[in-house]
Amino acid sequence: xxxxxxxxxxxxxxxxxxxxxxxxxxxxxxxxxxxxxxxxxxxxxxxxxxxxxxxxxxxxxxxxxxxxxxxxxxxxxxxxxxxxxxxxxxxxxxxxxxxxxxxxxxxxxxxxxxxxxxxxxxxxxxxxxxxxxxxxxxxxxxxxxxxxxxxxxxxxxxxxxxxxxxxxxxxxxxxxxxxxxxxxxxxxxxxxxxxxxxxxxxxxxxxxxxxxxxxxxxxxxxxxxxxxxxxxxxxxxxxxxxxxxxxxxxxxxxxxxxxxxxxxxxxxxxxxxxxxxxxxxxxxxxxxxxxxxxxxxxxxxxxxxxxxxxxxxxxxxxxxxxxxxxxxxxxxxxxxxxxxxxxxxxxxxxxxxxxxxxxxxxxxxxxxxxxxxxxxxxxxxxxxxxxxxxxxxxxxxxxxxxxxxxxxxxxxxxxxxxxxxxxxxxxxxxxxxxxxxxxxxxxxxxxxxxxxxxxxxxxxxxxxxxxxxxxxxxxxxxxxxxxxxxxxxxxxxxxxxxxxx
Length: 501
Known about the structure:
The protein is of the alpha/beta class. 56% of the residues lie in helices and 7% in strands. It has 24 helices and seven strands. The protein is elongated.
């Protein structure tokens, strides 16, 4: 496995140009820990002119005056702080004389850790034109109460600061392809880029040192993460667990299912699967692997699912839509409502909605009795339930009313499941078509039916297919017959919506 030097083309070109120009000012390469400052410095030194330059590598060695330069000064310069004003130019002269008339190219890695006297001597060398100073500085490092010694270079003539940015997704893809020996699945690249923030060291630690590469499998001509299993790669320096959980949540909130899938696999491998359970169980359902999701939830500590409204809903949806056990889903939500009294109304609203969309209108109506709209999310599911009941009774206009109310409430409800607004929007379009309100349906369909990124159209289609498959046969036949009658109107609305772009 090879780890290539990728990216940083602009930074290297600027250093190479500066070295060729004769007398450049100090060049400071900055970046957070792990961004590749040392690698860029090493690559930059390759462009030193071997015929006229002498490369001098300097390392921080403490706070004592000239500690970094002492190996190159011997006893010729006093390190006493009392004589620092005289010692700085003396040290610069000694270093210049030792170069024997050649230009020094001084490389000081982690300059923020060096002593001030050494930086002042190197600054003097640079001012005299006897040396090119290349230094690196970690922007995320704490220097305590002392001043950052690189501040001495800040206002030097010709001084350049090169800030190393995180690697792009394309650069991460190139690195991964070099290590693995083949192209990587785009969603896997996105997931690893998100998990590491494009930090080269974190990426190397994760993929190579923690042997994530061994967890990859071929898929559709590329490599992706394999089946999730709680392996736990918790070595020092790997990705931050909190950051990983955050990027999983972000991917799921953005309905980037492929990326969320890969990130959840990574979280499982990293040993934090329980913290991303809400996203993972939904991803598995949409992938047609509901049974796996149910087994995963059942493996969690006792009471964990019932105590979390997100997990309780995820399990109920997996039972009802994934494996067709609607009654079991209803009972699981009832148990959760008993255990979680604070969220009782919301859990009962979930139960009523599942019963309604699966064609059990009477039971759904009964389930709504006594449910109070104690919060916005509960209100959203109450309206969604009433809309589903109305659609089942061919009361399309009533369904439109409740769906609009549900969508308005969802807009100001940050905790709403991310798949719900797209699903409700798709239902609203269908309800308007069934009510003969083609113009309104066309307006809403614009930018949605086309499956534009972030619209959630694909999610709505997946979920609608799962829900429809679990309705009783007689209800499904009635629904299909109604949709057949409105097929022409549906096609017209979609065509007009796409044509208006």
